[in-house]
Amino acid sequence: MSFLHINNIHKRFGETHVLKGIDIAIEKGDFLVLVGPSGCGKSTLLNMIAGLDDISEGDLLLDGERINDLHPSRRDIAMVFQSYALYPSMTVAGNIGFGLEMRKVPKAERREAVRRAAELLQIENLLDRKPGQLSGGQRQRVAMGRALVREPQLFLFDEPLSNLDAKLRVDMRTEIKQLHQRLGTTIVYVTHDQIEAMTLASRIAVMRGGELQQLGTPQAVYDDPNNLFVAGFMGSPSMNLVNARITRDAGVLVARIESPSGDVTLPIVRDRAALETWCDRDVILGLRPEAITDPSSANRQDGEIHEAELEVELVEPTGADLYVVTRLGGRGINARMRPGAPLESGQRARFAFDVSRMVAFDPESEDRIRDVEKASAEMPAAALDVS
Amino acid sequence: MSKPPSSRGGARERLQHWLPRLVLSPSFVLVLFFVYGFILWTTYISFSGSGMMPDYTWVGTRQWSRLWSSWTWGIALHNIWVFGLLYIVTCTVLGLLLAILLDQRIRAEGTLRTIYLYPMALSFIVTGTAWQWFLNPGLGLERTMHSLGWESFSFNWLIDANMAIYTVVIAAVWQATGFIMAMFLAGLRGIDGEMIKAAQIDGAPTWKIYGRIIIPQLRPVFLSAIVVLAHLAIKSFDLIVAMTGGGPGNATAVPATFMYSYAFSRNEMGIAAASAVFMLAVIAALIIPYLYSELREPRS
Questions:
Q1: Which residue in A147, B95, B105, B137 has a CA-CA distance of 20 to 30 Å to A214?
Q2: Using only C-alpha atoms, what is the Rg of chain B?
Q3: CA-to-CA distance for B130 and B243, rounded, in angstroms?
Q4: What CATH architecture is A238-372?
Q5: Using the beta-carbon criterion (under 8 Å), do A72 and B201 form an inter-chain contact?
């Protein structure tokens, strides 16, 4: 039995169907990140877990108990809000201790719990201040302290970092992850930032238009996306998606991609059985930028490298990497090369494609084309055998 | 810094520079004379021996001591104290209560809000006259009840010297509560909804969410409401004139009606001026700190 079980949950606001049957199950200690573009229903789902929105249909089970109709305060959950939602008329200590006070915890015990939470978050020196006197990062910590102090079974985070500036956001992200590792709590976290999702989650649920697109470990969602949307949404720079035609070349199944410098032919190694049936039809191929490199930095041990010569359209150095844009299948695609690779725009260069990481999508349904035995979204990338 | 302008451009610039001052100066002069000038004049009169007509002989604080030894002035001060306190407290409490009830996402909120606000659109004279009719035992509520068959019904506060001041409170509260409600409603709408959700998760019952989290945040609204009501209370002249005329006897006299009757019917302009200056001082003591705190540059 899983710890938190979201079982076929629907949400309707009048005529609009906001959530269309969400199924998610996570274990104790999991860090589930709900990610998706705005309006995908992720915050609604979180509010339903918190009890702030009614569940139109379906069951919500926490530790085996159905909590659909339980008042938020009786669900043994704590929530951190996007606006922090601190009580401005109370001190930091009052804010953190408010939940305990409402639960009639004796004063001495309460003070000790507040002190412990403050210590954990390094805000002991702020306990007597009012929220109005704190910086954004400090408020964020107080909001987390208010959640931590009650030691609930489940933590809910609603885009907690989106009001912080970029640098602070990265720091707080690391801290949230450390806290999770140290305390081993179960967390459901909503964000629209896929990098936050990748770095924090032990399980990612990608949502779109009220439907769950994929549920899996960050690596599985990244390497083995269920459909074009997940492939395009996760990862930055995003996955290269190009039009290609599956054909047979000297008995070998290949994907043929048009390019100004002559067609590129890449052998199919992944999901070969499924793609056999797509012979002589068009598909959309997905390749991560890091699966297209310069030949010298290609990973020949784990991957299967196939080289092609293409024209360099643009060179974008980021310091750590060198992104090279070339034209393939009518689109500009990103390749991640080693920094300092001697490349200039207009020049022809050899690109190394790791075809073992190539995925294919049905251009009509936008679904992934994959072998049946690998259809489970839960399968981690390491388990994918590349023959 | 900039080049000296050519003569034509200079004339134009000079005109642009002086035009706003030219346009504003008549009203500035008028206000200076008729408002501040007469404040000074009234202040002087309160130290003069004026009776029916202004008389500029300086008599020191004689009028002031006559004012403070006047029996009617004592009643007026007592009345304004009772009236002001009841008016401010009742309006604030009722206004807040109505705002909280109206904030529960009820249907037809817009209509109700307008209905509550309408009394504010009436002048004090209309309010006073209407309530005078309504509470007049021979005309309004009591008579209606009697004609409906409830013979023992009696509500004669309006003609009872001990109770008449409370009828004025009722009418004034009826008029201002809607406005105070609108102020509180605006304050309630400004409160972050996530904060209320957080308090729900923290396990606070609704009355505690209001008592501990929402109402403390309405402090600036309380301040504004009290200042608005306080100065309305002190200025309450027309309502009392229309409703009771200060009577029965002097039972509902307030400083404003006191001042009016001393100036225009009792020919004691000096005493009236002293009472007027006193009222101005009280209002200034209320308003100036408030304006100062509101208009001061917000500091981070």
A1: A147
A2: 26
A3: 8
A4: Beta Barrel (2.40)
A5: yes
Among chain A residues, the shortest Cα distance to B203 is held by A73
Those residues whose C-beta lies under 8 Å from the C-beta of residue B59, and which sit 6 or more positions away, are B47, B48, B49, B270
How many Cα atoms are found within 13 Å in the side-chain-facing hemisphere of A268? Answer: 29
Q: In sequence order, what are the beta bridge partners of A285?
A: A242, A360
Question: Alpha-carbon distance A154 to A5, whole Å?
Answer: 12
Is residue A356 pLDDT above 80, yes or no? yes
| Interface-testing mutation among A44, A46, A48, A52, with chain B (most B C-beta atoms within 10 A) | A52
Residues of chain B scoring pLDDT < 50: 1-3, 5, 300
Q: Which of A375, A260, A255 is nearest to A326 (CA)?
A: A260
What are A319's two structure tokens? 């310091």
Q: Tell me the domain boundaries of chain B.
A: 71-295
> Which of B191, B194, B201 is the mutation pick for testing A, counting most A CBs within 10 A?
B201
- Mean pLDDT for chain B overall: 85
Give the CATH H-level superfamily of domain B71-295.
MetI-like (1.10.3720.10)
Superfamily of domain A4-232: P-loop containing nucleotide triphosphate hydrolases (3.40.50.300)
Give the model's pLDDT for residue A31: 94
pLDDT > 70: what percent of chain A?
Answer: 96
Q: Can you give the pLDDT at residue A385?
A: 40
The DSSP result for B103-116, as a single string, is TTT-TTHHHHHHHH
